[in-house]
Input
Amino acid sequence: MLMLEMKKAISVKSPRGEIKATHMCPKVSLGIKGVNFEVNLIVLESLDIDVVLGRGWLTACHGEIDSTQHLVSLTTPSGDKFVYEGTQPHPNN
Output
């Protein structure tokens, strides 16, 4: 995966405080339910998070979140709609 230094660092707020992000991975293929989406990932150091997909990406995919039902509706690059059902995170033992 290609990682590039961004021209301008950005500041990201998290529960652990503010984090300065300086690198990104452009045009990464992200598979969800067998469908590939292209995403630009910003590298966040030392967070126990796999991927955060922002509002811009969600808007581009015509996404809708149903928090109560743990569902996310997305539109694929070919225009088809599908629903992804999330799971509850398991607490660390």
